[in-house]
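Backbone-to-sequence.
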């Protein structure tokens, strides 16, 4: 097993959520760190640790960003970090599977299963030249499961949040 660190320059965590039934609003977290242990031969995965700085959320509209950061949604002053931890995965074939772990938002942890696709494993073609895993992951959560209920009952903001992650993870020298 080798350690892989998420490349912050090539990691994007983004979500969509319904806005009054008209369209989905896009949000992106710009500060994400993480690592995991993985064996490319056996597909064994462990020690997944991901941290997202909640205040780094952007929805590309300043007033909405302020609202998403306040206590109606992410309450970033009290809960500055969103985390995901997992101790394993379930491969379904050579390049896909699932990863089930605990997602913590607003101090509440819930089990979440991510659908995972291993896009590519290769030595990086320039720069550091180390092995890199390219990964695409997605899931959906109900934000009310984490106590985030603003706008759910009156239909202003959807309850279901679709989450997508695109990342390149660099094999550690250690």
């Amino acid at each position: 097993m080798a350690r892989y660190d998420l490349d912050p320059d090539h990691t994007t965590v983004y979500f969509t959520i319904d806005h009054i039934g008209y369209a989905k609003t896009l949000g992106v977290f710009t500060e994400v760190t993480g690592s995991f242990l993985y064996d490319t031969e056996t597909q064994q995965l462990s020690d997944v640790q991901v941290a997202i700085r909640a205040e780094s959320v952007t929805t590309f509209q300043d007033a909405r960003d302020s609202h998403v950061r306040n206590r109606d949604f992410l309450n970033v002053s009290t809960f500055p970090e969103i985390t995901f931890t997992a101790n394993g995965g379930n491969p379904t074939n050579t390049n896909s599977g699932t990863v089930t772990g605990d997602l913590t938002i607003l101090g509440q942890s819930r089990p979440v299963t991510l659908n995972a696709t291993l896009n590519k494993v290769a030595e990086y073609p320039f720069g550091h030249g180390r092995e890199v895993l390219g990964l695409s992951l997605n899931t959906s959560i109900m934000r009310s499961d984490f106590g985030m209920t603003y706008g759910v009952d009156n239909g202003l903001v959807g309850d279901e949040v679709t989450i997508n992650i695109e990342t390149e993870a660099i094999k550690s020298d250690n």
